[in-house]
Write a structure and sequence with these properties.
The protein has 351 residues and is of the alpha+beta class. It is 28% helix and 15% strand. It contains 9 helices and 15 strands.
Length: 351
Amino acid sequence: MKLHRAVRFIAFGLLLLVIPAVLSTPSAAQIGIGIGISVHIGPPALPVYEQPLCPGAGNLWTPGYWAWSDDGGYYWVPGTWVVAPVGMLWTPGYWGWNNGFYAWNAGYWGPHIGFYGGINYGFGYGGVGFFGGEWRGGAFFYNTAVMHVDTVHITNVYVNRTVIVNNESHVAFNGGEGGVAVHATAQEETYAREPHTPPVAAQVQQEHAASQNRALFASENHGAPAVAATARPGEFSGHGVVAAKAAGAPYHAPAMSPKEARASGPAENHAAAPSGAKAVDRPFVPPAKSNSSNGDRMENNNRPSEENRSANEAHPAEHPQNESKMQNAPTSKPTKAPKKSPPKEEEKRDK
């Protein structure tokens, strides 16, 4: 009896370990919020849309973005209002170009807004910082100059029109040809070192729901999704849904399939945004002194040379200076072989 109970206890423990792993395993549509993704083709321009009305106090706006699916390519994750962790602000994720790849840099919650590629997501996210509101104690105050808030039901408001960014660019990636040429500031580097919180469950739900909706794929909506923003996460129909007014730029279908465009293996690990942030599910500190995207490319290209140096030290015969000796070695052995005397001496003894 005791043995059977022990077996059942062990089986139950293994089940508890397996269930979370299965639930967290991404489907064919990779969940871009928490998984580093690199592809050969850049995302479409950000669609033009209006912000739905804030559903209630304590909700913070999380901008829409293009996520990636290995089956269907880019798909739009509608912007939405999310009940935020108290005192935290949302730093959006962004796509960054380097060495021919576009790498996804995941967003996060933190006490300050970090670097998000200089992408103008709108609604307070003009490319640098966030000016849609601020925490005052345990309450969030909304800047109604850039936030769509019902001031009758939400009284924690103020107006600051000086922060409005009249930037008509809808580019959705940093670096590379046609990308946003912005680098992280020293202050953003400091913010990147602060403790961060991953996306809340509602944000993961929003992206998962978007990945299951074929109408949200760029191949279907050509950059202008019918569901560009939602009042609440996961609600893709009803009065709180806002459709895109237009695509941010003319949509051009990629020449390669999603599977061909997807980077994998070592190439994906080396792909990083010009800010220095790598394609992983946590923020990295971006360099502020770099004057061009070539700086990071040079840094990445130096890594193989360091590996080669260590390999040459471990195997001196493989060093280029020893290459000529290695080439001459096979020809020298046959010439020495006929000069060996032992066989001849044995023949004389036989005679």
